[in-house]
Amino acid sequence: MITVLEVNDRKTYKDFFNLPYILYKKGHPHNVPPLKSEEEDEFDPKVNGAFAHCESKMFVAYKDGKLAGRVAGILNKKYNEKVGEKQIRFTRYDVIDDIEVSRALIDRVSAWGKELGMNKLIGPIGFSDFDKQGMLVEGFEEMDLYVTIYNYPYYVTHMEQLGFTKEADWIEFEIKVPDKPDERIDRLCDLTMKRYGFRYLEIKNFKSVEPYFSIALNEIMNEVYYHLYGYVTMNQQQIDRETKLMKQIFIPDCATAIMHGDELVGYGFMAPNISEALKKANGHIFPKGLVPFIKALKHYDKVDFYSIGVRKKYQGKGVNAMILNRGLKNLIKNGVKYVYTGPELETNNPINNQWRGFERRQNRRRRCWGKEI
Q1: How far apart (Å, rounded) are the C-alpha atoms in residues 312 and 177?
Q2: Nearest CA among 74, 72, 73, 58 for reference residue 12
Q3: CA gap 22, 322 in Å, rounded
Q4: Distance from C-alpha of 344 to C-alpha of 342, rounded to nearest angstrom
Q5: Contact between 109 and 59 (Cβ < 8 Å)
Q6: Which DSSP symbol is given to 32?
Q7: CB neighbour list of residue 328: distance below 8 Å, 6 or more residues apart
Q8: Which long-range contacts (CB under 8 A, 24 or more apart) does 192-197 make?
Q9: Which helix (H) or strand (E) holds 275?
Q10: What is the bridge-based pairing of β-strands 66-76 and 54-63?
Q11: Predicted confidence band at 350 (pLDDT cuts at 50, 70, 90)?
Q12: Helix/strand/coil for 46
């Protein structure tokens, strides 16, 4: 017998957040366990500013009395207003390999969506563009990232059997860092700086760049990424939270900011790859995960590429090349061998094309599914 319960007491709450650690047991070669505290904060209206324009419900499934699955539904009113649709989102979908458990979970979140007047279910997709989103459909043999979610291949089969079809795909790349900088790009960047009066912001520590995080996350990202699938503008509470999270993994050599006078023109943000450290932490930085986490930030030969953005009025003027060139020099200086991109929409050609000049391979693909309800 399959039972689906809404999370509304201590037991169902614990089961919801514990399921990934049960389903993907410690030592899984490719899964990177999320930090439990961050996952819980994502669904806490006091912490996550998205609840100013979102509603959410969490559900857990039991088969014959044993924990068998979970899913959360999200009503993102701001996004629905943006696209003029009546969508309900699902996220944190995890399940044993039993199609009937999946069906029961999807039916429950669909029913909630119908109660709210929605007519379409999409997912996995979270509260904002910074939330983890997209179901892995290619690259199951690849190590996951801090900012992504691993899932078993049978999840894809369940989606297809339940009548879901592709809404959007994100692709990811592994990029080999060259042995030395390209002198031609160096010269072009110097000419760009002289022609337009651009300069690099000197970044010594997080404090020196912290005031610009809000500008990057608010003004530039909202301008550049607003048209992309799933993107929703963030309020100040969300921006403050993301800035705090970035501070935890910030390394000066992994951040680049381009200025024109006192105006932030563009930015690029990377961070050391902490996948192995998170595997050792298994959901908790304290106490056992702290030492691996600190080591990962101090000694690294892989980095994750998080975000890049250039104000529209400065696009086409070489700013993107300046950001990549400075970042590349710092990676070479620090002995970094590989860069891993986060999920990039396959239709976002300006971002995808920036890697064409590098030795690269597409190593993962993630999907947002959708169906009428």
Answers
A1: 28
A2: 58
A3: 45
A4: 6
A5: yes
A6: -
A7: 177, 178, 181
A8: 192/317, 192/318, 192/319, 192/321, 192/322, 193/322, 196/260, 196/314, 196/317, 196/318, 197/260, 197/261
A9: helix 275-281
A10: antiparallel
A11: confident
A12: coil
SS3 4: strand
* Strand ranges in 37-138 using DSSP code E only, listed in sequence order: 54-63, 66-76, 87-95, 120-123, 135-138
- Give the list of residues 6+ apart from residue 317 with CB closer than 8 angstroms, or none: 192, 196
pTM of structure: 0.95
Other C-beta atoms lying within 10 Å of the C-beta of residue 88: 27
Question: Residues 174-199: pLDDT tens digits?
Answer: 999 999 998 999 999 999 999 999 99
* Closest-CA residue to 250 (of 222, 230, 270, 236): 270
Q: What percent of the chain has pLDDT over 70?
A: 100
> Torsion angle, CA of 281/242/38/143, rounded to 10 degrees?
-50
- Token code pair at residue 56: 């959410």
How much is the pLDDT for 289?
87
pLDDT tens-digit readout, 219-247: 999 999 999 999 999 999 999 999 999 99
Q: DSSP character for 144?
A: P
